[in-house]
């Protein structure tokens, strides 16, 4: 009882601390053509504050929770030019022309980090524009160039990701990693995300950490050694079915999360079909769990692809039962379950799936 009381007291203290309102003052420089800048709190579009610009300069003031993230920026021809800072009570100076930040130690450090990655981000945008410009050009030269672009872009992505991960690990005692952590969670493994989202990190209870923590919990539900979670959905005939009808019955089962509208899912399906045809006679089974909303599209894709296994869906798209039960935030995804219903692997695609099944059915 005493332990529960202390925990409750700590929680209330934390809530009080997190609810502290702090005034902010932001002055800035923008291009002479800019007439207005916006300030958004914690990426909440309902919180937009509009500030007029005069002769390339602006001054803004307001009040927000302590350490709320403030995104300050303006529209440009190809998107939104912005900088992110955190409301810690110290005055902030921004230059949205050369992307510099002056202010508290944490905001200055964040600004320096973002500026250091700027050349790579600019190059990435150039590659993306070139890639999209080449789409639909059916020549060997164009295809070769697109392949080169993809290779260079992957190298830049890895470099930026490593830089951001190093920054996060070095700034566990402040909230600034949340400027980019929510956008990089899909590139992190369960162990990497677990490490940077430990409860002792200063940003752990921040509102901007909610999505990364949800992602972590989803990954946790698909870790090897965890028992499968029941799903109740309808089959293609409209009959209610349970995942437990096939999982945990003695056979290895691949529970495959997909959708008819998902290009990468459909690209992976021939690999799943090949695995099913090769190992089904030995006891291997597949359950397709669709994130579709349109019944006709779902059934048509099943027929086109040749998905001869069990198929279920509640036709609720991203709001489907599987999304919550297994924390699925991107597809294609899957889990491989053993005969007892225990997950032994997740997100096996391409050769990885074939190699795992060859190991099982050797």
Q: How is the secondary structure organized here?
A:
Layout: H1 2-18, E1 21-29, E2 36-41, E3 44-52, E4 57-65, E5 69-76, E6 79-86, E7 92-95, E8 100-102, H2 105-134, H3 140-170, H4 181-184, H5 190-196, H6 210-220, E9 232-235, E10 240-242, E11 253-258, H7 263-279, E12 285-290, H8 295-305, E13 310-313, H9 321-326, E14 333-337, E15 343-346, H10 351-360
Helix pairs in contact: 2-3, 7-10
Radius of gyration over C-alpha positions, nearest whole angstrom: 25 Å
How is the main sheet built? Answer: 7 strands, mixed
Total of DSSP H or I helical runs spanning 4+ residues? 10
Indicate the structural class: alpha+beta
Order of strands in the sheet with the most strands? 10-9-13-12-11-14-15
Low-confidence stretches: 1-18
Q: Into which percent range does the helicity of residues fall?
A: 25-40%
* Helix-strand topology string: HEEEEEEEEHHHHHEEEHEHEHEEH
What spatial form do the alpha-carbon principal axes imply? elongated
The total of beta strands comes to: 15
User: Which strand-content bin applies to the residues?
Assistant: 15-25%
N-end to C-end Cα span: 55 Å
Summed over residues and divided by their number, the pLDDT gives a mean of 91
